[in-house]
Structure formats: C-alpha cells, structure tokens
Amino acid sequence: MRTADVVVIGGGIHGCSTALHLALRGLKPILVEKDYAGRHASGVNAGGVRQLARHVAEIPLSISSMAIWEHIEDLVGDDCGFDSHGTVLVAESEEELAGFRARVDELRLRGFTYEELIDRAELKRLVPAVSDHCPGGVVSRRDGAADPFRTTQAFRRRAIEKGAEVIEGVRVTSLSRAGTVWRVETSDGPIEAPKVVNAAGAWADRIAAQLGEPVPLEVIAPMLMVSSRVPPFIQPVVILRGRKLSFKQLANGTVVIGGGHLATPFRDENRTVLDWSKLTTSARTVWELFPVMREATIVRGWAGIEARMPDDIPVIGPSSTSEGIYHQFGFSAHGFQLGPGTGAMMAELIATGASNVPIDGLGIARFSRG
Amino acid sequence: MIAAADLSPAYDLIVIGGGPAGLAAASLAARAGLSTVLFDENPGVGGQIYRGITSTPVKNGTVLGEDYWAGAALASEAKASGASIVNGATVWTLDPSLAVGISIAGKARLVQAGRVIIATGALERPFPIPGWTLPGVMTAGAAQTTLKAQGLVPSGRTVLAGCGPLLWLLAAQLLRAGVKIEAMLETSSRRNWLRALPHLPDFLLSPYWRKGLGLMREVKAAVPVIPVQKLAATGAGKLKEVVYVSGGSERRLLADLLLLHHGVVPNVNLAMAAGAAHRWNERQLCFVPELDDDFGSSVPGIAIAGDGAGIAGGTAAAERGRIAAIAAVRALKPEASVPAPQVVRQKLAREEMGRAFLDVIYRPSDSFRRPEGDTIVCRCEEVTAQQVRATADMGCEGPNQMKAFLRSGMGPCQGRLCGLTVTELIAEQRRVSPAEVGYYRLRPPVKPITLAELASLPIGEAERKAVER
Amino acid sequence: MFKRLHDTPTVTIKVNGQTVRARSGDTVAAALLAAGIDHCRTTPVTGAPRAPYCLMGVCFDCLVTIDGIGNRQGCLVPVREGMEVATQVGKREAGR
C-alpha cells in the first residue's frame, strides 16, 4: 500500500504547483495524473500571465502569483519562457473606453493600481501595429506571458526533486474514507493519505460528485491558432473585451491567436473538434485589428480541455462535506497565471490550516446554497 | 477551372487526392449516381505515380514506361464519369462531422460530405543524412515529378542514393531520357535477403519480379551500383560532394544533384487530424490506419484508400479506391448497381502479392532512419538528432512533448519530414517500440492557410446563402 | 542542375525582378529549377539556403512569395504570364 501525506489528483499547472509547494513544506505528496503532466489546458493554453481584467475575488491570488512569476526561475530552476511586456486591453470604441475607465477607477478605490488607462498615443506607442480605429485601452505593465508546457513541466520536475512522487498514466477511480485517512483507488492500486487535493481540471466534477458535492462544471476547450514565424512586430499581449481575442507574438516570431472561442470537447477521449466558423471569426477580428497579419499563414489550430464554472471563477478551498479534501479546479480559461500562487496558498492551507491570501467567494459551497 | 464559389454546399462523396485511388473511387461513385467531387492540390490529376498524365510533354512512350501510361485510362474514365474534379484545391481540414475545409485560389470554403474517401497517398520516407537540407539534394520522387510533369531532367553530375523499387525505376527513366548518372549508391543491407526469403514464393508469382529484374539489368548496364554503409552530402550553401563509406573506406564524388530515396510511407496527416486511429506497422516501418475490409477508418463515414492505407503501389491503389467507393455507394444509394466487390478484391489480392518481399528486401537500414549527431531531423525548425536524443534522455517520452521542448514538427511541414524519425529516435533512446512512443498529435489546418483565406470563409446562414446564390 | 528535354519556354515570369522564361505547365518551383536558380528561400531559424526538395507539396522548402503573397508552395502553383516571384529571406515580412 502506497501512503502519502497528500494525494494530488491532476498534473496540470495547479496540481504540479501544489505538489511542489507541499514538498517545499516538508510534506510527502503523491501526484496522480491520468495522462502526462501538462497534457491538457495547462500545457497548451495561450500562456498569458496577466493580472489585467480579473474578477475581484481572484485578485489576491493573482497578485501573489505575479510575485512568484517575477522570480519563477528561483522557484523552479527554469525561466519558463516568462517575459514581461505587459498586457494591453484594447478599446475598439470611445464607448468601450469609457467602460474601461469606470473599471480602472473602481479598482483604484479598492486599492489596486496595476491597471492603467491609456490614450490613443500611448496605445500606438505600445502596440504600433494596432488598427487606427482603436482610441485607447488599459495596460497592466507587469503582465507577460510564458511557455505553458515548459512551465508545467518545470513545476513537475522541481516537485520531484523536492520529494514529491509523480505518477503519470494512472487514473483515479474512486475515493473513500478508511478510518482517519482517505483511500484513493487508482488504475495502479490504492494510495492512502490524510489529505487529498482535487486539481483534476475538466474531470474534477467527478471527484466532487463522489464526495456528495456535485458542481455545475462545464467542460470547455478554448481554441488557439498559431502562425508561421513572422518578424517581430508586437511585444505586449493584446486582449479585447467586446470581441473575443487574445493575441501575442512569441520570441520565435510565431503569433498565437486565442480569445476563448470554443471547440467541441470529448473529455473521455482526450479529443477536441475545432469549430472553423468561430476560428474564422477570430481570423476576421485579427484581420481588422492587425492589418499586418493578413497574409500570415496559420499552421496549426488546437484546443485544450479544461473546466468552466457558471460564474467564471474557480473553486478553491476545503470540501464542504469531507474533512481533508481540498478543491482547486474550475479556472474557467484563465487559470495559468494563478498556478504558482494558488499552489503556494493551498500548501499553506493544508500544512497550517490557514493562509493569508484570501479566497473568499471561491468555495465549493456556493453551488449548494439554495 | 472550378472556383471555390462554384462548389455545392454538400456532396454525397468527397474524394481527397487525385491519384489512382482517388480517380478510381470518384469514377465508380459518380457512375453509380453519387454526387461526387474530387479535390486535388496539384495542377493536374494523376497523383505522384501518374503525375502530369494529362499534360506531360514527354511524348516518347518508352521513357516513362507502359506502367505510367496505364494512368491515362484512369484519368479519362474519371473525367467522363460525371464527378467534379477540382485541381489546385487544398484540403486543410476534415472533421468527424465530414465537413471538409477547402481552399482554392486563395478562397476558403467548408463543404459537407455524406462520405469521404481520403486518397492522399504516400510520401517518401524521411532520409535524414548529414547535408540533406542543402540545395542540390532532392528526393528521387522530385526528379521523377519534374520529368513527368515538366520534361525537366538533371543536367549536371547526378548521383542516386538509397534503395527501393522507385529508385531503380527513376534511374531507368532518366537513362532512357538521355541523362548520365554518375553512380547509384545502394543503402539496403545484404542481410535483408535472408529475412526476405520466406516471402520469395509470392514475389515470384507477382508482376514485380520480371519488371524489377529488367529494370535492375537496364540500370546496372549503364551505372556503377555501389553498396554503401554511410552517406553524407557536403558543400557550402549548395551540394558539392557526396561522401560515402563502402566496404570500410570513405570515398567522395563531386555532384551537382543527389537524389535520395528509401521507400515511401503513408501520408497520414489528414487522416490522423480527422481522428482516424493508426497503428505502427513494423514491416513497413510506419504508421498505417486501422481499417475494415472496405477501407473504412475508425471515424464513421471516412475511408482511406490507396497507399495512405499502407503501401501497396499504384495499381493496388486503384482497386482499393473502388472497394471504398462501392462501400460509399452501398451506404448512400443501395439501389445503384456497382461492380461485384469480390471481383475487385481478387484483383487487389493479386496486386498486393509480392509486396511483403519488397518491404523486407528494401527495409532501410537503422542508421539511415535513426541519425546521430548534428544531422538535421526536423528540416523546418532545424532540430538535430542529438537534440532529440538528449531531450528523450531527459525524460521527454513522446513526440508531442518533443514538440513543446524543441519545436520539432511545429514548422510548416507539420512533421511530414520528421515525424517518423522523431518517433524512432525516441523509441531507440527509451528502448521501447515505436508503437509505444506513438506519433505527433496532428491538428488542422493540415496545410497552412493564410489568415486572409480563413477570414474569407463564409460563416453563418446569410453569408452562405450569398455565396450559393 | 536541370535541363528541358524539348519544349521551348513560352511564358515569362519575374523572379526577384529578373525576367525568367518558363513553359506553360511548369510549376513555379520547376521554373526556378529550370532557370538554374539555386535556392528559393533562406530559413527563418538559421538563415540556411533551401531549394525545392520533394516537389510534391510536403516539404515546404520551396516556399516563395508569389504576386505579393508569401509562404506559397512553389511546387503547387502553375506559372502564369507576368507572375512575380520573390525568394524569401528568413522570416517573411509581415504585411507590406
């Protein structure tokens, strides 16, 4: 019988980060991953590392994560391809810009100053290639982007170096109470541990359901496209609000186009089917926003399977029904940046029973209330 | 010339690829009354084996040989069958709902099929030797293409290297066209003969036997054929010398053109991206689709005919196309009359006879499939064998992780020229079979399209109506 | 590297501004080979020269700019009278 202090279910950025931080606290975690670490959304997302435009409930976690991102190499021994050229939320009309101004003002009242309204001239300075119809936007200058697969692998590797055990190609089949510990049945035999973290992403609702706390998790697969290499023309990540777009050029010259248009996911087959009508909409948005991209070639499209909650914010914190179980899933297409900080917070919570980083409003009980 | 806007929104059958399998399938289905369209990305039909069959300037029949001219009947039959044949049409996606993304002259469309037959054939097995990216190094198939389609032949010092029936055929065709060949460097291992013996009886009954011997005799009479164990192309910015090791000693040949070939493998990109299951074939050293007796794939409604179903050659490809088309007709229009499938299957069995012997005798040697050192493996991203091996040793267990670490397979060719090499290198480092390592996970678009083309795709009912008008 | 067996060129195209005679029925890649142009692009990674390798649409080494549109597979595009072809240097310029 394998035993551990904590079983972490799921080898995405969150599971790997939590495993690493648990190991750093001297605990012995076993991470169980049904495919391989970073196989799904954590390995194939757009790589955006942004504080910009986040839900208020996530802001503390996002800020604590950003502090880790800025020294990511110290933590995991790899720079994860992280660079920091800011994220720019582009307004496509004066009306939209007015809405952004209201949001920035509200954040300032709450004491958050990292979002900064910019005018047309500053937008053109930051993003010279942007179409002339855009009157301004919002910038978060410390934001950036990283290589998602490399990052997830770096957390996995460092977790193992620090004493975590990572079991890949093994599926968790059930959870049951065995005296004072949890018995986690897997396709490779049982593991017993007093604590369990449910970081199973698009499959996390099945774990929660076993614990008597079903959640309305939606399986989604946000689509991305990448171009062939083009000469450098843009540094910040650009996002839109009115239309779906995230847009960034990697150091190697390729341009990654995303923004949340969804493929059809088949989570039991690890498969997604792209929706070309929606990718066409993406292509048209880029066509209008970045005329320089019109003749660039698209070489690949893909989608990573992940979980979305109805309120678009994650489920984080102790189970409402089962002592010793912790949830960390449902990041709703914006969980990559949160990985480092949420893992640290979760390890602190498990090890000490409390954390200074507030997670109010993110508990699973919000789905069982009346 | 059919434009994107001329296409119907839907067809009973969409055939992808205009080689023997595609032409035979489209003809049979159209004659049986299915609305049929054949998309082919080349300027004319024929695929690679019958390349330029309707337009070749090579009028002297003996140069290309009678097997080539047999393609003319297939092409004219397809033309007369009522199938729409669209050349210059690049298929960039096929999904399980049988929607086909097509691009013609810079305009993209999605077209719906009742059934799809993928007949995208084969490509030449990657031949990663030092210097294979130099200008002046090409595939043997490339030289055959320029001969057939354009009447262009090598003019300088020309060296052929590798193994397999196509290399001998090309040598003979070039000789007949008056080309001087400096040498043919033969890379297959003599030990293959022993392993091939059990397949010899079948081979002796097949048409390959007589044809093959004749070609070899013809070539050997005019060209030195040298067995080699190592091979490299060198030069600064373009090919200057071919360096080889034969019988333990290194030799050099000045050369303007080096033509490489060691067999062909299924072109799996479209089928895999559509979700069709594939498995490793150890005898042919490649991934082949899992197919039923009618060449139906694991995706309902999608069949894979021709060499894409596993290498069997052009005449077998046509019979496979017919079998797949009969299944399509029976599914969509059961009352239509079609040829008796048993007769076609018997013909196919005859055509496939002898193939096992060829697979084994011309099995490319390990060292020519699994390079070492700084030999480039991924031509697009210029990733070397050493990088792939070292990354596998670091714990990178599969080709998909390799993509993320090294960008191998992430360039415009989408792994076509490195996929098998990367799989085999990882397998060798991990000491497991290529079957366990698997292949790149392929995603559409399977051919690059410009952002402008994609933006031109009509979406929504109103736009589609405007196009159909 | 290559010579024509018989047909005389009848189509005129421009390659990097220079006039090149081609035969109707040539692909762009074939016309470049027949004209003795020894490479059609340099790679975006190391700048190494590349020439057509497979001529059957799979290797993407014959990528050229045709009538202003970059990254086109020269082996799949037939020549047309007056066509303007440019070899590609490293990363293709985005938009011009």
TrEMBL record, chain A:
| Record organism | Enhydrobacter aerosaccus
Q: What is this protein called?
A: Sarcosine oxidase subunit beta
Q: Fetch the InterPro entries from UniProt.
A: FAD-dep_OxRdtase (IPR006076), FAD/NAD-bd_sf (IPR036188)
What broad taxonomic lineage does this protein's source fall under? Answer: Bacteria, Pseudomonadati, Pseudomonadota, Alphaproteobacteria, Hyphomicrobiales
For this protein, what is any one GO molecular function term? Answer: oxidoreductase activity
**What Gene3D superfamilies does UniProt report for this protein, alphabetically?**
D-Amino Acid Oxidase, subunit A, domain 2, FAD/NAD(P)-binding domain
**Which PANTHER family does the annotation name?**
FAD-DEPENDENT OXIDOREDUCTASE DOMAIN-CONTAINING PROTEIN 1, SARCOSINE DEHYDROGENASE-RELATED
Q: Start and end of every FAD dependent oxidoreductase domain?
A: 5-349
Which UniProt keywords are given for this protein, alphabetically ordered?
A: Oxidoreductase
GO CC, any one term: cytoplasm
TrEMBL record, chain B:
Q: Name one GO molecular function term.
A: oxidoreductase activity
Record-linked InterPro entries: BFD-like_2Fe2S-bd_dom_sf, FAD/NAD-bd_sf, FAD/NAD-binding_dom, Metab_Enz_Cyan_OpOx_G3PDH, Opine_Oxase_asu/HCN_bsu, SoxA_A3
The UniProt entry, under Pfam families, shows: Pyr_redox_2, SO_alpha_A3
The UniProt record lists the FAD/NAD(P)-binding domain at 11-312
Instruction: Enumerate the spans annotated as SoxA A3 domain.
Output: 376-455
* Keywords assigned: Oxidoreductase
This chain belongs to the protein called Thioredoxin reductase
Lineage of the species this protein comes from: Bacteria, Pseudomonadati, Pseudomonadota, Alphaproteobacteria, Hyphomicrobiales
From TrEMBL, chain C:
Q: Does the keyword Oxidoreductase apply?
A: yes
Q: Which Pfam families match?
A: Fer2_4
Domain 2Fe-2S ferredoxin-type per the UniProt entry, residue ranges? 9-91
Q: Which UniProt keywords apply?
A: Oxidoreductase
Presence of the UniProt keyword Oxidoreductase in the record: yes
**Which residues are listed as membrane-spanning?**
none
Give GO terms: molecular function aspect only.
iron-sulfur cluster binding; oxidoreductase activity
Quote the protein name from its UniProt record: Sarcosine oxidase subunit alpha
